[in-house]
Amino acid sequence: MLSSVAERLYWLGRYLERTENTARLMSVYSNLLLDLPKHAFRWESLVEITGFVSAFEQRFSAATERNVVKFLFDDPSCSLRATTNYARENARTTRDLLPNEVWEKMNELHLLLESDISQRVNRSQRHEFLASIIDLCLELNGYLAGSMSRKSPYYFLKLGRNVERADMTTRVIDVACLNLIGRNKEQDAIANILWMGVLQSLNAYQMYRQQVQDRISGVAVVDFLLGDTDFPRSVGYCLADMASSIKHLPHHSPALRAAQRVKRRALNASADALLVSEQLHEFIDGIQEDLSVVHNKICQIWFSS
Amino acid sequence: MNLKHYPLQAGLYDELISSQGRGRPGLGELSKFLRGASEASLNEKKAAAELAIKTLGISFTVYSDGENIDRQWPFDIIPRLIQQAEWQKVEMGLKQRLKALNLFINDIYNDREIIKDGIIPHEIIASSKDYRPECEGIQPKFGTWAHICGSDLIRDRDGSLYVLEDNLRVPSGVSYMLENRNISKRIMPELLERHQVLPVDDYPSQLFETLCSLSPRNIKRPEVVLLTPGTFNSAYFEHAFLAQRMGIELVQGSDLIVDNDDCVYMKTVAGLEKVDVIYRRIDDQYLDPEAFRADSLLGVPGLLRAWRAGHVALANAPGAGVADDKVVYTYVPSMIRYYLNETPLLPNVPSYLCSDPEHRSFVLDHLRDLVVKPANESGGYGMYIGPRETERFTQKIRQQIVKNPRNYMAQPIISLSTVPTWIGDKLEPRHVDLRPFILQGSQSFVTAGGLTRVALIKGSLVVNSSQGGGSKDTWIVSKGSSQDKTDAV
After folding, report:
1. What is the phi-psi region of residue A41: left when phi exceeds 0, alpha when psi lies from -120 to 50, beta otherwise?
2. How far apart are CA A221 and CA A233, in angstroms?
3. Closest listed residue to residue A258, CA positions, set A271, A246, A250
4. Could you list the mean pLDDT of each consecutive 10-residue stretch along chain B, which spans 489 residues?
5. B337 and B369 in one domain?
6. Who's near B261: CB < 8 A, 6+ residues apart?
7. Higher pLDDT, A129 or A118
8. What is the residue range of B333's domain?
9. In chain A, which residue's Cα lies nearest the Cα of B250?
10. Which of B104, B26, B55 is closest to B319 using CA atoms?
11. How close does chain B come to A303, measured CA to CA in Å?
12. Which of A55, A201, B448, B449 fits a disulfide with A28 by CB distance 3.0 to 4.6 angstroms?
């Protein structure tokens, strides 16, 4: 398999995942809003999670709902439209390795986001729009998982997806903690709903419920999202899955070591201790740095030849 | 739809309707279908075709104002029908032609018997822009230089087919031929069912086999790759499409290296891997900065060296373009007689060579009745169409011919045949040509039909997609209708 193609498939995996994550995030937060008093919800959070605060501030003066949604729909560098375009471009240049249907679905997704989205900013149409984006992403992943042989191309796609997924989960945890921790008692009721939102935005609510069976608490949620060994979007699970993909690829030792290191860190984390010592933010920063070490190793070994 | 209102044009040959709304013999099913179809149903099919093209992502890239624009593939829903009996002859003619062309190229780079025997003047080769001295003395496997050829056929007012040109460098369009059939299957299954249409899907596997047969190493699974100039090339869609259908790697120049052993390797995730056959879709000049244009970033340094050493096969071989020069074209019938001792089965369009003094003075006297073509341009660029051009351009072309006669050839204006085409809410005749694809490795193969290109603008003869042309699915139909099929079951 060509190095250049491996790189494009890896990024295809990442951008597809990012598109799905962003859409879900927007969808969940739009719903959450209906359950909360107006002041309790900051739309900035969504921009913070994507990490494009300065791009947003350059374009908009206030983080109103409309501005944030518009930004995440059509910003040229980080919106749903942009990540879809990147994903499609990577699919276009790796078409020879992908199932036919993937290219067709990719075009559907692209056409959906290229259509006039000015109306979709409105809440009444937003939900349906985001749901169809998420559906298309899942269909794409279904075609990939269901019809690609378990060989290098598939593993690079999966690696990309898991790097992105782990990264997104850490971002969601990070922003949630900045917003939710250190609030006073009277806001506890709201906190409960917000933590629920955090879980939903990672499609984790049901699985958390089955696993934890306890009243929703920040500590338990963070533990679950960092270290659960079975939930496919927990940081620990993503890293374990990456490690197993990496093992199928040639010359993998340095990348494997890097992935296993982050996995151990995530699995051994204790949210309680981190929250008490107010070190959760630093800890998440550390995990993100470790993730970028894994990413760099992947680039060095397989892409840069 | 009343076909009596179909605006047949006097002096032009329509391939479906002969006169008074009557269908030509053997093609009755289609005219019957059109008679029974309503305006609304055809519009519906047109919309369905457009949607299919969008989701299938069938596009081509046009370079305009310094920008690359990805355009939807223009497709007309009404298929163009050709009878199988006629097609069998065309197929034989095309194979014969490519065989002779390959013998010619091999001769030119080696013994040059054809020049010694006085069939072709030496100057024609000496002045050819696509002659590559670097290829002298090389004998590729099977003596084949042009493994993939796209020849353009046109039908004149007398109803017979002529070869307009042969494309032996990097002919494109075959993926659109395949996709057109896909669209037809989606939007017109009932009409397809009523005919017995030869399938076209075979092409990628035939191409793959042809390419494998060229491998210098005698191994079971030679490494075959498709070399593309990259995503900005107008035919990138096709490159990706073909690589996918053949299950081979789609590579760019930067993915390949030629090592000290003069072998070609590709950079893979597991290290370097040896490459046996390269289906290259890059022009000669950009293929190898060491041998040709030094400023080329698309090619692979040392590629020609590896090819000359016999360590890698290139399809088509460098230098094959010497035979798709429009002046050399005029000698193809003589080549067929000379090398194969056969009568040419497919006629050339009568041509006048401006390098020949007699022909030249005829051309200069009859400029307004002729089409003048530069010898080495493709895509319809630089063409002079006598009856239409301005006086200024006419003067300019006259001067250019006098100054550089070798660069020009002229042909009478052929009134390309027409085919019913769905324009707006009406069926109207539009001019078409046909590009079949011919393969030659250890064996020869011709596509069942080819890519029909149609000039969508009324009266226009320019079918190139870069200049407002569209395309149609081409059906090679046999006499027995599907009625017989069902009866037989």
Report:
1. beta
2. 13
3. A246
4. 89 90 88 93 94 83 68 91 96 97 97 95 86 95 97 92 94 93 93 93 96 95 95 87 92 95 95 96 93 87 96 96 88 96 95 89 91 74 84 91 89 90 93 97 94 91 78 89 41
5. no
6. B311
7. A129
8. 3-216+312-346+414-488
9. A96
10. B104
11. 7
12. A201
Alpha helices in B109-235 (DSSP H): 113-116, 122-126, 174-187, 189-194, 203-213
Q: How far is CA A20 from CA A65, A134, A148, B310, B471, in A?
A: 20, 5, 20, 50, 37
List the domain range (segments joined by +) for residue A82.
1-148
Residue B334 shares a structural domain with residue B242 = no
- Find tokens 């054809």 and name the residue: B114
**Residue B88, token pair as written in the block:** 């069998």
Single out the residue in A97, A115, A148 at which a domain terminates: A148
Chain A closest-CA separation from residue B333 CA (Å): 40
Q: Which two tokens stand for residue A200?
A: 């939903």
3-state SS record for B288-321: CCCCCCCCCCCCCCCHHHHHHCCCCEEECCCCHH
Count: domains in chain A: 2
Cβ(B465)–Cβ(B453) below 8 Å: yes
Q: Which of A2, A93, A100 sits opposite B268 (nearest CB)?
A: A2
Among A166, A161, A153, residue whose Cα is nearest residue A302: A153
Task: Give ipTM to 2 decimals.
Answer: 0.77
Residue (of B310, B308, B332) closest to B322 by Cα position: B332
Residue that is last in its domain, among A91, A120, A148: A148
What whole-number distance in Å separates Cα of residue A247 and Cα of residue B454?
A: 53
Q: Which of residues 51-70 of B touch A (CB under 8 A)?
A: 54-57
Give the model's confidence band at A211: pLDDT under 50 very low, under 70 low, under 90 confident, else very high. confident
- List the beta bridge partners of residue B163: B153, B348
Token pair 């890519």: residue: B451
One-letter amino acid identity for A297? K
- First-residue to last-residue Cα distance in chain A: 12
Q: Is B255 on the interface with A (CB under 8 A)?
A: yes
CB B416 within 8 A of CB B15: no
CA angle at B231 for the pair B225 and B233, rounded to the nearest 5°: 90
Question: Cβ atoms within 10 A of the Cβ of B68, count?
Answer: 13
Q: Are residues A94 and A157 in the same domain?
A: no
Decide if A2 and B244 are in contact by the 8 Å CB cutoff.
Answer: no
What's the rounded Cα separation, in Å, for the pair B206 and B67? Answer: 36
- Both B206 and B183 in one domain: the answer is yes
CATH of the domain at B295: 3.40.50.11290
Q: Are residues B135 and B18 in the same domain?
A: yes
Residues A281 and A158 in one domain: yes
Q: Is residue B227 domain-shared with residue B363, that is, in the same domain? A: no
